[in-house]
Known about the structure:
By secondary structure, the chain is mostly helical. Helices cover 53% and strands 8% of the residues. The chain has eight helices and two strands. The chain has helices spanning 2-19, 23-30, 34-42, 49-59, 63-68, 71-74, 101-106, 133-152; strands at 115-120, 127-132. A two-stranded antiparallel sheet has the order 1-2. Strand 1 and strand 2 form a beta hairpin. Helix 2 (23-30) packs across helix 3 (34-42). The protein is elongated.
Amino acid sequence: MKKQSNLISQNLTTLRQYHKYSQEEVAEKVGVTRQAVAKWESGETVPDILNCDALAEFYDVSVDALIHHDQETSHMPIPPKGKYLFGTVKVGDRGQIVLPKKARDLFHIKSGDLLVVLGDEHPGSAGIALIPGDTVLHNIAFLRELLGNEKEDPQ
Length: 155
């Protein structure tokens, strides 16, 4: 329980400082006293489940991340709700990579699935993204149908 208490206090302090809130502002938004927030951040006490939920909602993180994310081990701050950092992968001689199991499980990716590889080379946003092929194909079919309907009904 001591380690969990330390994680929660560290995460609460980091989130408040990152968002540039005072303990008073957090207390007001969550509906507790400033002293309660101070005790949570110092590790003296931990918020109950309802307050954890309110804090997670306020900071836009998951309750699981709020109470379990270990910044020292991951070397990363708590990610926003729905955003993930799965770690690093090495690129093989022929450009192959192995997606981390946690990512494959979360996005239901299995052997033989089609993924579309997108890229952006502009400074400040450069990167590569993978999108399930069936999602892309579904959207293309939808656009074709939409554009086909517009040609039939010119107004």
